[in-house]
Amino acid sequence: MAPREKMTREERLEKNRIAERLRYQRIKNDPDKYARQKVKEREKYEKKKNKGSIETVKQMTPRVQRKARKIWREEAKIRRRRLALQDISNAFVTPPCSDKEGPLPPQNINRRTQAAQQKSTGKARNLKIKKQAEEIAQLKSAVQWIKNHLLSHPTLK
């Protein structure tokens, strides 16, 4: 029998991740096991909360709350975009049977999602423009300082 090759750490971790995903998938497919798993997770969360290793929003300072909520908003935005793309890619569009039927009907895109995407791209663009304007102002002030410094230097006159 040939000796087994040793797996690298990354390969072992990837193998374990795949096995864990499959295990959770089996649990989710069985309603009874899934209900027990949810109860276990809830108990584990309560235990951590009582122990103090998890900080609830009420325990956070207002500044930390704002930071956490900002992160949550960003993650929700990313998730909504990902789900919208899945909806678009999963949309069933039938091609016309003949050329006489005309163009394809527009894809079913959620209007709310589309508006949110446009708004977020506009905000990002405005933020980028604002940062660029601030950088230009800083550079102009630096140039002005250098000019004044060079003009006032006695050896350069």
TrEMBL record:
Which domain of life does the UniProt lineage start with?
Answer: Eukaryota
Q: Where is this region: Disordered?
A: 29-68, 94-126
Q: Which residues fall in a compositionally biased region of kind Basic and acidic residues?
A: 29-46
Return the Polar residues bias intervals: 107-123
Q: What is this protein called?
A: Uncharacterized protein
